[in-house]
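TL;DR need structure tokens for one chain.
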Amino acid sequence: MSEQLVAINTRKSDQKPSRVLLVANRTATDQPLIQAVRQRAQRGPASFHLLVPAKPRGLHRLVDPEVAGRDVARRRLELALPGLRDAAGHSVTGQVGDANPLAAIHDALHLHGFDEIIISTLPWRLSRWMRVDLPSKVRALGLPVTHVSSTTPEAADGVLDAARVGSGVSSSRGLQGASVH
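>> reply
TL;DR here they are.
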């Protein structure tokens, strides 16, 4: 009887990178998301794409919901990408999506195809996404979903407010922290 050897190549460079969709708005630069990206990158090859759903505020929800909130979401995306790139160890792509986060996720999945999803939300008592149980709805799509929760909304708004002040856009809030959802 002859022995048969089977070689399994486990080198990371030979593995096909998983495509990971990151979904965040006010928590896009918050440490729990950055840490989740860092941990996922350490587990094996992965490419990351940040989706920031636009969030219209006030009367814009009724008047022009398709357009409103896109500038703020675009700015959050721009602020988040450098930290996420550092955590991933390579470039991270991104886009602004539909105001409805589930619709935005569906669009991204159909346009780009992903293997797993990381969702970052505000704490449960403050998060609209948690009130509609977004993580469970996304899990129903059949992909692995990791949910991370941010620290505080004040910290999240502080970074964007600092960016607004620096870009000449006025804000009624002071600088309060260093995170974004």
